[in-house]
Each structure stands twice: as structure tokens, then as C-alpha cells.
Amino acid sequence: MYYEVIIIQIVLASASPRRAKLLKQIGLDFTIVPSNIDESNNGNLSPAEYVQQLAYLKAMDVAEKMAQNGQDKRYLVIGADTVVVKDGILGKPSDRQEAFSILRRLSGSWHEVLTGIALIDTQDFKCIKGYETTRVKMKELSDNTIFAYIDSKEPMDKAGAYGIQEKGAVLVEKIEGCYFNVVGLPLSRLAELLEEFGIFVLK
After folding, report:
1. Residue 58 DSSP SS3
2. Interval 110-153: pLDDT, tens
3. Residues 37-48: b if buried by 16+ CB within 10 A, e if exposed
4. For burial by CB atoms within 10 Å, which of 91, 94, 137, 190 has the most?
5. What is the residue extent of each domain of the chain?
6. Secondary structure class of 18 (helix, strand, coil)
7. Which residue, among 16, 10, 15, has the nearest Cα to 165 in the 3D structure?
8. Residue 25 and residue 140: Cα distance in Å, rounded?
9. How far apart are the first and last CA of the chain?
10. Upper half-sphere CA count for residue 162 (Cβ side, 13 Å)
């Protein structure tokens, strides 16, 4: 019996080194082509809808470029977006004061981290979307602790002003759900979506 071998190249539509590291962790070969879209929040969308919509827009932006530039090739583009939610969506801080305000808001309480994923096949532009939610409990943080963490520069490029995979780990008391989702890419959920395109992480 003969099987058709379909060559599909994976593209990550993100410049995030954290997401790239996670894809390498599960053994995927991929190239990075960052998207260029407006990430401003649409207040009419729920957090789950918002992260999936942004993931889709990121993936589609790159998928259209790849389809135009490599018409003889087939790509599977992965778009992702992560937000922190506590009484609304908390994005990346614009300055030290906003970082302090966000971390003060999260201190001593639970919040949710949502990551939306969108996969688009440039052969027929088939798209599959999904998302993951993780609950995170932050420790009670003193002002000195918050400012010391801000001085590390970690908060400035991260949703919710912290990174659980770096020094920000010491701020977190516990989590409920997928750890990798908090880092920025829920690997188990991603693997399920990849299977819809015939790509199996464990083969």
C-alpha cells in the first residue's frame, strides 16, 4: 500500500522567543515570520473570542504573505495570542507605572491566562482555532518586591506584566491548568489542532 507524502512547512507567526522555544521543545521544525497587525482590543469580544480572533488575524496575515511568495509550497501557519484577565483584559505594560499598577492589581489574588491559537493551511486556507485557559494565584506582593521585579525588565514585554518561566516564577503561588499556556503556547492543545492537519507530534 502506498501513501501520499504531503510536505508541509510550519511557520510561526510570532517573534516571541518563548513560543519558539516551546515549539522546539516538542520537536517541530519551523520558520519564524512575525505578523504585523493591530493588536488593539475590541471591547465587544469576550477574552476567549478576543485571543482566538487575534491569533487568526496574525496567522492570516502571514499565511497570505507565504502563499504569495511561495506559490509552489504548502505552509501551515501558527498564530497565537495570550492575555491575562482580571476584571478585564490586561495587556503589556507601556511603562514602569503601568507595570506596577498591573502587578498590584494581581497581587494576592487569582487571575486567568488565556491563549488563543489559529492554524491556517496555505493550500486551501483551511483554518482551525482553539484556546486554553489557566488560573493563576499570585502571592501577596510588597511594593518593594514589585519594583525589584520591574527593575529586572521582565514585565515590559509580557501580558499581565510577568513571565512565569523566568524570575516572575517567584511571584506565583500556584496554578490550575496548563503551565505552558501561561508561558504563551498550550502545547497539548496545539498538538490536538496539528493532528487536524495530519501532523503528529508523537509519531
Report:
1. helix
2. 999 999 999 999 999 999 999 999 999 999 999 999 999 999 99
3. beeeeeeeeebb
4. 190
5. 9-195
6. helix
7. 16
8. 32
9. 19
10. 30
Cell numbers for 116, please give them. 488563543
Catalytic member of 29, 61, 81, 87: 81
Q: Where are the beta strands (DSSP E) in 86-176?
A: 89-90, 110-121, 127-138, 172-176
d(CA 83, CA 114): 5
Nearest to 81 by CA among 24, 30, 23, 41: 41
CATH class of 9-195: alpha beta
Cell of 134: 489557566
- At which residue does the C-alpha cell 498591573 appear? 102
Instruction: Read off the pLDDT of residues 146-178 as tens digits, 9 standing for 90 and up.
Output: 999 999 999 998 999 999 999 999 999 999 999
Active-site annotation holds for 61:
no
Amino acid at 166: E
Burial class (CB in 10 A: 0-12, 13-18, 19+), 167: middle
Biggest distance spanned by C-alpha atoms of the chain = 67
- What grid cell was written down for 141? 506582593
Cell of 5: 507524502
Q: Which three cell numbers stand for residue 176?
A: 490550575
Angle made by CA atoms 178, 179, 180, in degrees to the nearest 5: 90
Interval 14-23: pLDDT, tens: 999 999 999 9
